From TrEMBL:
Keywords: Cytoplasm, Gluconeogenesis, Glycolysis, Isomerase. Pathway: Carbohydrate degradation; glycolysis; D-glyceraldehyde 3-phosphate and glycerone phosphate from D-glucose: step 2/4; Carbohydrate biosynthesis; gluconeogenesis. It comes from the Bacteria. This is Glucose-6-phosphate isomerase. PANTHER family: GLUCOSE-6-PHOSPHATE ISOMERASE. GO terms for biological process: gluconeogenesis; glucose 6-phosphate metabolic process; glycolytic process. Catalyzes the reversible isomerization of glucose-6-phosphate to fructose-6-phosphate. The gene is pgi.
Length: 526
């Protein structure tokens, strides 16, 4: 029996407020720092590790966090979720994205269907489709092979798949498994679709229309935009488009597509990268085997998330430390800083994943909570960010916890030695330097040059960003966010906060406006 209680009603949370705050600067200086770096590390899937030495934790804080995990029943709640409980209370839905990559618990039957079987069946369908396209069995009207895949979708139907594609594009080129180049159209800004269409050979392109609901204005508009371009080029859109949607959506009934692959209402858009939403485009781009490795990495990480011992569960530990930082230390934001150019859009994906999930002010029963919930998430790859916003991170008045990600090896392997080090070594040297600089600071008589230190960070370290590591990385953040939602007692799986803007935009387009809305409409010439 699980109890869904607000964070501030838990005795272990009250205890945590009384645990002495760690002096990070002292803890990370000298031998004590070296010892922490060795000790405060949890193995992850794909040979990666979550290192939290530079977080404001010590054995006392960790003990208090373990009690909180226990009292908040985090492991039990995860179990409820993967065994098919109605965790998404707002929409009265199950939450099953983990089932797209493995069977963690009992068989989940919903609407009379074994859900694991359903997801596997869809995987088989899009894998076979991709193989036929690669083999030249599915071709364009002129009998020629398709060379490019263009995904049309927005939000969860864009950010995750796009970030994953970019993360593996160079790895796939290097490993000779880039089957098709992928492009993405998301914004309703006509310049987005026009620019992508100008950059591809439409006659040899397959367009993947992705919309879980099948009703998203931007995506339907861009579908028409693309169909128009295909018709103008003398092509039949039905021979160039496939759809990924939920079975209940209006798109599911249409015969306008070469093929259709399905997800369902039990997978939230932002959690859909491992479903057909990411699967179709990634299998077309890299081949089904690569997508399978990606799923394998995610499945292994999902299993680690089952661990009741927080010191062996990187997601639960990361979540607990995050809540400690947010609700007790009072930090408002979290920066995601991958030292990997391939992860250039990963922070953008995490913005949706985290902020759309936990940006809530009421608990899962609709009652206001008396504490802060999800942090503001932002980020950029390092070292680029260092030359941009790190000034505020080092010396600003806000302390922003940092989530670094780094890999020992590059993906392409081409490198140069300048002044006795490779570029990869320079990249890794920078992330090591930043962690210590943030934690330990540097005293200077000139206050302008003084670094206070005491600024916490963690790092996920891997050998190389390959499909398995990427799957594990994705699952890490998905599960961390899930555990934080459990701690805050919010429903992390709906997103009512995006509705109001959509309704008002419709009114503007229908010229049904007054007051400020009318004035803005006039200013923008609508
Ligand atoms: O996949 P779709 O149904 O087209 O939804 C696309 C996106 O739009 C919505 O506004 C939601 O905020 C997102 O969670 C969702 O991922």
């Amino acid at each position: 029996m699980v109890n869904w209680n607000n964070l501030d009603t838990l005795a272990s949370f009250q205890t945590l407020t009384n645990v002495k705050e760690v002096d990070l600067k002292a803890a990370m200086t000298g031998e004590s720092g070296a010892d922490r770096v060795k000790r405060y590390s949890v193995p992850m899937a794909a040979g990666m590790a979550f290192n939290y030495a530079a977080k404001k934790v010590d054995d006392d804080v960790l003990e208090a966090l373990a009690k909180l995990a226990e009292e908040a029943q985090l492991a039990e709640k995860y179990k409820e979720l993967y065994n098919g409980a109605v965790i998404n209370t707002g929409e009265k839905r199950l939450v099953l994205h983990q089932l797209t990559r493995g069977q963690l618990g009992e068989k989940v039957v919903a609407d009379g269907v074994d859900k694991r079987e359903f997801y596997v069946e869809q995987q088989k369908k899009f894998s076979e489709f991709a193989e036929k396209v690669h083999a030249g069995e599915i071709v364009n009207a002129a009998g020629e092979k398709f060379t490019t895949v263009v995904q049309i979708g927005i939000g969860g139907s864009d950010l995750g798949p796009r970030a994953m594609y970019l993360a593996l594009e160079n790895w796939a080129k290097k490993n000779d498994t880039l089957k098709m180049e992928a492009k993405f159209i998301s914004n309703v800004d006509p310049d987005d679709a026009a620019a992508v269409l100008n950059s591809v050979d439409v006659a040899h392109s397959i367009f993947v229309l992705v919309s879980k609901s099948g009703t998203t204005l931007e995506t339907l508009t861009n579908e028409s935009f693309v169909k128009d371009a295909l018709k103008n080029a003398g092509l039949d859109p039905a021979k160039h488009m496939i759809a990924v949607t939920s079975e209940t959506s209006p798109l599911a009934k249409s015969a306008d597509y070469l093929a259709a692959f399905f997800m369902d209402d039990y997978i939230g858009g932002r959690f859909s990268s491992t479903s057909a939403v990411g699967g179709a485009v990634l299998s077309l781009a890299f081949g089904p085997d690569v997508f399978a490795q990606f799923l394998e990495g995610a499945a292994e990480e999902d299993k680690l998330s089952m661990n009741e011992n927080i010191l062996e569960n990187p997601e639960m530990l990361d979540a607990l430390i995050g809540v400690y930082e947010r609700n007790i230390l009072g930090y408002q934001a979290t920066a995601v800083l991958p030292y990997s150019q391939a992860l250039s859009r990963f922070p953008a994906h995490l913005q949706q994943l985290d902020m759309e999930s936990n940006g809530k002010s009421v608990n899962r029963f609709g009652e206001p909570v008396n504490y802060v919930t999800g942090p503001v998430i932002f980020g950029e790859p390092g070292t680029n960010g260092q030359h941009s916003f790190y000034q505020l991170l080092h010396q600003g008045t806000n302390i922003v916890p940092l989530q670094f990600v780094g890999f020992k090896n590059s993906q392409i392997g081409t490198d140069v030695v300048i002044e006795d080090s490779t570029s990869q070594q320079k990249l890794c040297a920078n992330v090591a330097a930043q962690i210590v600089a943030f934690a330990c600071g540097k005293e200077d008589e000139n206050s302008n040059k003084n670094f206070e230190g005491g600024r916490p960070s963690s790092i996920i370290i891997g050998d190389q960003l390959d499909p398995k590591a990427l799957g594990a990385l994705l699952a890490h953040f998905e599960n961390k966010i899930m555990f934080q939602g459990f701690l805050w007692n919010v429903n992390s799986f709906d997103q009512e906060g995006v509705q109001l803007g959509k309704v008002l935009a419709k009114r503007v387009l229908a010229h049904d406006t007054d007051g400020a809305l009318k004035e803005y409409s006039d200013l923008l010439n609508i």
